């Protein structure tokens, strides 16, 4: 009997070993059939590579494998996209397109544009952006202007038409983790990659980054005139706002309306109702109030990341820009379109007229410097070299990169 049991056990053991060997051989054959990469298909490198850079109303399809196969190697990693949002209403098409062009020219990683615009502007945006599809470096999505239905009229007329749309970006773009919001009158003089990298400098409590409204309190607006709380000594300017929107959606904010902390989607309307008679700059004022009560949530970056006429019209007061040049130019007060600050207008016109051809970009600097030299009769023009210092470096770096990085 014992001898019989030993035979049975031996047979079972042999059968089990044979089964293991068969499965191992099957695994090897599957791995070889997948080109050695093995495993399940990975996400496409980036949709901007497949779609020729062309954006659609709701994005583009998956990227094709470079070899024409539908198999993907595990070594291929998804390329990180930088998300840039802008809100355009009224006569802001040309200004917005110039901003987007400056973003594309110098940036290294691919860009995803989120463009919120009035319906009558969508056709023009689509036509202009599709003409740039040969660049294969960006994608875009067009959105209508959208506010909560019960208070839409009130939000739309706050400060400037559609300006308060930015407050609702964390609630609309629910699948986007991080985002750089900019006003239409922004010009990038260095790669967006560099301000995007500031997200990694956030500590565990910080959810957004902005620059101070003023460097010099004697000319500050908030500290002299505001009738509401504001962040820090001079407030912050929301024309360039870097956001970790995942954290923004999760956070419960301290406030002066209730002892209960409120989430982003719940705090906006109560803030507007309480302060609407006391705010001058609309949504920017609401952000200042919010970060006054939650100062630990804000990362403050230097003025060179949001350089405005206030930094030079009464004399230079942005030391970082004097040392390293302007990183992001913000032409508020309409200075790109009048003669009050010709140094700002000269940079805007140079980038507006610049094409994406290499020779055109290379030859951008000399004519611009000549134009800036004509502005030395103004305070901003007297320090015109800070307008091209970083721009010149960005042009050099662009052509120092390998073709694959451009």
Give an account of the 3D structure:
The protein is an alpha/beta fold. It contains 17 helices and eleven strands. The protein has helices at residues 2-33, 47-50, 93-106, 119-130, 152-156, 169-172, 192-196, 222-225, 245-250, 264-275, 283-293, 319-324, 342-352, 358-362, 365-373, 379-382, 385-400, and strands spanning 82-88, 111-117, 138-143, 178-182, 186-188, 208-212, 236-244, 252-253, 262-263, 298-300, 328-330. A hairpin with an 8-residue loop joins strand 8 (252-253) and strand 9 (262-263). The protein is globular. The termini are far apart. Mean pLDDT is 84; it is low at 26-74.
- Which structural class is indicated by helix and strand composition? alpha/beta
Distance between the ends: 79 Å
- Indicate the mean pLDDT: 84
In percent, how helical is the residue content? 25-40%
> How many β strands by DSSP?
11
Ranges where pLDDT stays below 50 over 5 or more residues in a row are 26-74
Major β-sheet annotation: 7 strands, mixed
Rg, Å, rounded? 27 Å
General shape: globular
State which percent range the strand residues make up.
5-15%
Q: Helix and strand string, N-terminal first?
A: HHEHEHEHHEEHEHEHEEHHEHEHHHHH
Total helical segments: 17
Strand adjacency order, main sheet:
3-2-1-4-7-6-10
Write the layout of secondary structure elements.
Layout: H1 2-33, H2 47-50, E1 82-88, H3 93-106, E2 111-117, H4 119-130, E3 138-143, H5 152-156, H6 169-172, E4 178-182, E5 186-188, H7 192-196, E6 208-212, H8 222-225, E7 236-244, H9 245-250, E8 252-253, E9 262-263, H10 264-275, H11 283-293, E10 298-300, H12 319-324, E11 328-330, H13 342-352, H14 358-362, H15 365-373, H16 379-382, H17 385-400
Parallel strand pairs: 1-2, 1-4, 2-3, 6-10
Antiparallel strand pairs: 4-7, 5-11, 6-7, 8-9
């Amino acid at each position: 009997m014992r001898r019989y049991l030993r035979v049975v056990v031996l047979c079972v053991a042999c059968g089990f070993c044979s089964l293991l060997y068969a499965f191992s051989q099957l695994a090897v054959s599957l791995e070889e059939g997948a080109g050695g990469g093995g495993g399940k298909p990975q996400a496409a490198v980036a949709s901007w590579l497949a779609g020729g850079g062309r954006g659609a109303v709701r994005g583009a399809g998956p990227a094709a494998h470079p070899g024409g196969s539908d198999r993907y190697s595990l070594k291929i990693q998804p390329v990180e996209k930088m998300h840039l949002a802008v809100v355009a209403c009224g006569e802001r098409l040309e200004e917005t397109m110039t901003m987007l062009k400056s973003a594309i020219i110098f940036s290294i990683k691919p860009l995803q544009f989120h463009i919120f615009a009035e319906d009558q502007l969508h056709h023009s945006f689509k036509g202009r952006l599709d003409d740039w599809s040969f660049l294969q470096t960006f994608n875009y999505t067009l959105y209508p202007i959208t506010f909560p239905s019960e208070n839409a009229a009130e939000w739309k007329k706050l400060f400037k038409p559609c300006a308060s749309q930015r407050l609702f970006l964390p609630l609309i773009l629910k699948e986007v983790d991080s985002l750089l919001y900019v006003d239409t009158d922004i010009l990038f003089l260095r790669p967006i990659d560099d301000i995007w990298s500031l997200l990694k400098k956030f500590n565990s409590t910080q959810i957004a980054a902005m620059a101070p409204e003023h460097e010099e309190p004697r000319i500050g607006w908030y500290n002299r005139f505001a009738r509401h709380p504001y962040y820090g000594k001079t407030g912050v300017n929301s024309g360039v706002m870097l956001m970790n929107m995942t954290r923004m959606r999760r956070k419960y904010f301290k406030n002066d309306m209730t002892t209960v902390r409120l989430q982003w989607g719940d705090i906006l309307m109560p803030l507007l109702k309480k302060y609407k008679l006391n705010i001058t700059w609309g949504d920017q004022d609401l952000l200042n109030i919010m970060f006054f009560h939650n100062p630990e949530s804000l990362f403050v970056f230097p003025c060179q990341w949001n350089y405005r006429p206030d930094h030079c019209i009464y004399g230079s007061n942005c030391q970082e820009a004097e040392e390293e040049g302007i990183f992001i130019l913000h032409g508020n007060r309409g200075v790109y379109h009048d003669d009050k600050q010709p140094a700002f207008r000269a940079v805007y016109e140079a980038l507006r007229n610049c094409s994406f051809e290499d020779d055109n970009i290379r030859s951008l600097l000399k004519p611009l410097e000549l134009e800036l030299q004509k502005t030395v009769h103004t305070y901003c023009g007297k320090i015109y070299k800070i307008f091209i210092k970083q721009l010149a470096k960005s042009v050099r770096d662009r052509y120092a990169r390998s073709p694959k990085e451009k």
